[in-house]
Amino acid sequence: MTTAYFIHLNGIVQGVGFRPYVYRLAHEMGIKGWVNNSSHGVYIHAEGLQVPVFYRRLLQEVPPLAKITHEEYREVAFGNYADFAILQSREEGQADVLISPDIATCGDCLAELRDVQDLRYRYPFINCTNCGPRYTIIQDVPYDRAQTTMQSFPMCPVCAQEYADPLNRRFHAQPVACSQCGPAVQLLNAQGDFCAGLGIEQIARGEIIAIKGLGGFHLVCDGGNPTAVQRLRQRKERGAKPFALMARNLEVIRRYLKVSLKEEELLKSSAAPIVILERKKESGNVLPDELAPGLHTLGVMLPYTPLHALLFDGAFDFLVMTSGNLSGRPLIYTNEEAVRELKGIADYFLLHNRDIFHPCDDSVVQVIGDEAVLHRRARGYVPLPQKCPQDLKASILGVGGELKNAFCLGAKDRAFTSQYIGDMEGYENFQRFRQELASFQKVVQIVPEVVAYDAHPDFQTTQFALAGPWPQKIKVQHHHAHLVSVLGEHGITAPALGVVCDGTGWGEDRRIWGFEFLKGNAEGYRRLAHLEYLPLPGGDAGAKHPLRIAYAYGKSLLSEREWLMTERLWERLAGAEQKILDQQLEKRLQIFETSSGGRLFDAVSALLGICTSVTYEGQAAIELESKAALWSGKNSEDALEPRYLIEWAENGECLILKVKELYWGIIQDVLDGKEPAFIAYHFHDSLAHGIVRTVLELQVGEGPLVLTGGVFQNKLLTEKVLVLCKAFGIQVIRAKELPPGDGGLALGQILIGNERCS
Fold this sequence. Notes:
By secondary structure, this protein is of the alpha/beta class.
């Protein structure tokens, strides 16, 4: 007897060609019935002898952009349908459907872009159900054209026919358009005059162009032109912060940078992130050092929009593609603001009239220990959710931290972390935070009842949470949130040991924590060990002056006799500056005690003369790692014992990591004239040994070890720790869908808030 089944699928099943896929599969297998979109996903009524096989294939052969998170399959009354049809969408109260991230241009669209016979030949906004804008253009749910910034572009008859045809690749592709009915580009010079073309000739001449992309503006110049690169660096007041590159294709990336299979997979993925890759020696002839001063790596991505592909009609193989913003300010995403604010930086403006509703930076990823580690999570990944280990008691907002902010909204068994917002120190960035929080609630259909915030009293996000309307406000310790975020990603609710290593976090003793061994879960934690407290002149602001940190650490750690031997190391500090530091240390004026791992890296970097003045967050540590990695690549030495020792002292139930011997050993090597790269390498190696020895000493029993915090975005250190852990049989888990730094903090806040809320 012929049977009938009702099938309910939810997840990313709308706007990704799912209904046409169901329609085609049903016709292929002789299935009768219907499929439609609803506020809760996709509903299917299927009749026929092959329904069980049909259902199995539905789950196994989903379209490339679809992601099923819920499935239901049950027998229902036979309807005796004559064929299979796509029915009109149904709305059923509050929407519960996932929105797809923005997707890099697919191969089919790229082929049509170059086909002189095609309707969309050289059309900069070609897209289909398998690619194109999604999150950046949606204003509200459900995801229909009228709810996106494409609402102001009525379809021409040809586009409308494709949009309505279930067998067409553009069936219900909401951004579908062509040159007759869709968005258009225009090139302006700095005076506002219209110019022909896409700016390719201007880039070839060494000019700088502000180009409106998928999620905001890029500032673009020829990546192989050192004069243009340096001019952009000066105009943008970027200091030494590295520029991102876009490459013509994978072949030119392979020519100048080292690319593993995993890195190649990331570059070619639908998210198309910036991937941090190691330079080859010969790359310096084509890719100038000015792109990333002091670093052995470059961040590179492939073209992910049709407009990007057209730009490479020029003769260049690499374009600088850096965020279009003023230093320290949020990403610019409107034409009016770009022309106003980027005047004086850009020589030309390549604009278009498709509005961006959610500004979204490029995502940044690096392969560390054979796994992709997100440094910045934005375009291509947002607004995909994380699954919570258990249902939340209420809808909760985690406001995140102060640096590299991303907030998180959670309800039921899902948590949605926003795109990278930026640092909250500036007024404009904080306004962007408020703007995105309001609009993100519509996209994910969550209005929070509870807010969880960082314990640091001076954070903008903390003050925002305390001033807000939420009846329950829950304070969360920074490093506890880091630990629980990773546990949550892995679906673990049991307590585990975590090594949380970062730059700064407000401790329960009102000191600055940052190199912590915590045992806990969402219910609570115990601090089992930490780096000894050291003096930080100027507090968090002192991180911009690593040589001052090195000086203060030396004064604190060394004996008077040892200190006198270091006199020549401080010649780069003016005499007056040394006197001020001496007075600060003596009288404890503006001196903050810290156990920060990040500040230890800063101090060592300055000691070695690698970075003594910081122009971007994390610079001293990043350049220190780069020197060490280059030395490691040239030398096969892998010491069984660390060169520099970390000792322990007990303070009640807490183990203190003492770094006097490590610091003095480094200073002796500097005074003996050892190569800075050699010392930098052995610092990383010794720190890795110290971390793993401490984990073994704590004897925490079964369960995984969590490695998290921004310091574990350091590839060399992390991979050394992973190798040692493997040798000792220690299972390690790390962040996988969120950054290990503060960009992943808010998920932990939500899960801890859930345990504490009533």
